[in-house]
Amino acid sequence: MPVLLSAPNPDHMYPIAGVRLGVAEAGIRKAKRKDLTVVLLEPGASVAGVFTQNRFCAAPVQICREHLVSAGAGVRALLINTGNANAGTGADGRARALSTCAALAGKLGLAREQILPFSTGVIMEPLPNDRIEAGLDAALADAREDNWLRVSEAIMTTDTLPKAFGAQLDIGGSRVSITGVSKGAGMIRPNMATMLGFIATDACVSPTIMQQLALELAEASFNRVTVDGDTSTNDSLVVIASNRASHAPVDSLASAEGQALKAAMLGVAQQLAQAIVRDGEGATKFITVAVEGGKTTAECRLVAYAIAHSPLVKTAFFASDPNLGRILAAVGYAGIADLDQSCIDLYLDDVHVAVQGGRHPAYREEDGQRVMKQAEITVRVLLGRGDAADRVWTCDLSHDYVTINADYRS
Amino acid sequence: MPVLLSAPNPDHMYPIAGVRLGVAEAGIRKAKRKDLTVVLLEPGASVAGVFTQNRFCAAPVQICREHLVSAGAGVRALLINTGNANAGTGADGRARALSTCAALAGKLGLAREQILPFSTGVIMEPLPNDRIEAGLDAALADAREDNWLRVSEAIMTTDTLPKAFGAQLDIGGSRVSITGVSKGAGMIRPNMATMLGFIATDACVSPTIMQQLALELAEASFNRVTVDGDTSTNDSLVVIASNRASHAPVDSLASAEGQALKAAMLGVAQQLAQAIVRDGEGATKFITVAVEGGKTTAECRLVAYAIAHSPLVKTAFFASDPNLGRILAAVGYAGIADLDQSCIDLYLDDVHVAVQGGRHPAYREEDGQRVMKQAEITVRVLLGRGDAADRVWTCDLSHDYVTINADYRS
């Protein structure tokens, strides 16, 4: 069981008007397991997506990108399977994914392009599209608006707990709800998106700003977490506005309403993204890596990810061992060519570990030890060369990460 | 005990005329352990070095770079300690390293600039320079030409076996010897050099080509291995030609003699570099990642390192699990923006796993399983977009890597 993550709070999983969800057991990889999800949207919903930058992106990711263009505002359903990624499957994988879209479209009286397919699971194995298609009737029969908890469970693979968060706010006197779910625990270093994340709101949002909203949410949430640095072939974040609330449509993210909605949705997105790290394979520590004083945000992020990906740093956190020179080494190889080590300061929570590139005279091993034993730790690096800052969230590297990933398929 | 590495063959550790080596117990970190080495060069030796690109490079690395310039052809001794890296130690660390150089210079009647210092061990702890200086007499008293084996032992940290290789060849009718030693098992992703590597020959080499020789050796050996992707603060490779053989000096690497000498030295350098991977912390598999068909060597290397650094690929090798889609995912996120997945082929030794980006129709799980069980495996990726190729050597990621690095300081 994860020590860093709690089960979702059902009271915060708000039904979203115009969004019905159904799950079923399709036997995609294992028997007796909910592994198929359909999300049904009423006409008029605004939908946007952000997808993995992995060049070996899965067939469903390729199709999602195409369907979001060809269907435009006409997207009416999401079809999600776990157990099989349908990645590294070539032309055959594409045909199988399209077949599942056509099957669902046929049952709903829609065109194939109005369906967005999503897959997650093992790479380079044929998608059992026949089993998915055979499971559609059961999933459709299950569809209802208060089904978010069961969806959060049905999209899990190596996740130990489902991930779902919600929020409510008032826009123009109208109560608006937001609910999101995500899955993921390994192969996590989203690059423009996450493993799978779905966030829906009944707010009214102009289609023209939906894509911008999705990008900005991804950039400040899923694109700031890493477990093992492995960018998945299937990362997908989909943001849905069902436009069922009674307020005037939000047509700018810079307006007061736009900022309020974005802040509330970002809160949900960050909780979903951080939940993936908290449930990171084998994770025993939740670590925030904050880098300040850089010339650019990009170089701060470079340093933050170098620290967050270092196996030596991650095993030191697992051991609660303040072997903190490993953090300095990661700062040094992050890739800033003109970095001056004599300008670097390092803090572990409130403990000043290194000053001007060397051990702080007042630093005591027991102070570092005290912080390292905590379940949540902030590493703070001051580069001393500018005003930019950035941060990422990660976890430690434990025996269980090796165990889980050595045994995943068996 | 490592399953992939054997103890050095003393018959291949040739004494190098003009190079005497001595070791001693200085108690730098642990008692009763040879942890101090001096290498004494007769006047006239040609010396070149290649050092870490880590911006947090250790004090001794900074000093080596300076002394190689200021002493020129006058370098007369190497002073090597294990147990303490003297990195992340600021101005105080520099002063302590210079103090050890001055102490050895005083005993040898040399200038401080004629000494090259090297350190390896824990980062961000003060160098016990007093203990090093107190141990110098014992190390000097021990100095002799047939002492390579004891040096290879004295420079070990988390290494489980010493690493030493040698070769002999004829140049201009003169028998020439080459002997090298290296250390390293973790924090290994040398970037222009290795943890510590020392290669000496009695061949006569013009000082003008020594630096080029060192760079070319590093580039094709230590710069092609990785254990955990962590570039050390202390990586140093030093190449020494004592110029004691009787042949005419080699003054070009393009000449027949230059090519023969470089090939023989490269053989030693690659064995030393590969030995670090074979002794990689927790390693149970030695993996060659060969990438062919790229537009440039650089992009082939990018893909090879993405595969070699992926924790998911490395744990799959540890488990002997042919979960080979993970390799395709790493190819996809390696960073080639215009990569076309439908052009990619993947082989595991002789087994054709994927063709045109998808699973090969004839690929059978048991064939992949057979190769994965081997102790030495070649992953071969064909990018299908050009004629360039490159390769790196790496190992798997096992429970013991976590154990070793969680416990390293205790």
Structural summary, described in words:
The structure is a homodimer of 410-residue chains. Chain A is α+β, with helices and mostly antiparallel strands and 410 residues long. Chain A has 2 domains: 10-278, L-amino peptidase D-ALA esterase/amidase (4-Layer Sandwich); 286-407, Roll (Ubiquitin-like (UB roll)), CATH 3.10.20. Helices cover 33% and strands 24% of the residues of chain A. Chain A is built from 11 helices and 15 strands. Chain A has helices spanning 59-70, 90-108, 129-141, 148-154, 207-219, 256-278, 297-309, 311-318, 325-333, 365-372, 399-407; strands at 19-24, 36-41, 46-51, 77-84, 115-122, 163-171, 174-183, 196-201, 236-241, 286-294, 345-348, 351-355, 358-359, 376-382, 388-395. Chain A has a 6-stranded mixed beta sheet. A 5-stranded mixed beta sheet of chain A has the order 3-9-8-7-6, sandwiched between helices. In chain A, a hairpin with a 2-residue loop joins strand 11 and strand 12. The radius of gyration of chain A is 22 Å and the shape is globular. At the A-B interface, helix 2, helix 8, helix 9, strand 13 and helix 11 of A face helix 2, helix 8, helix 9, strand 13 and helix 11 of B.
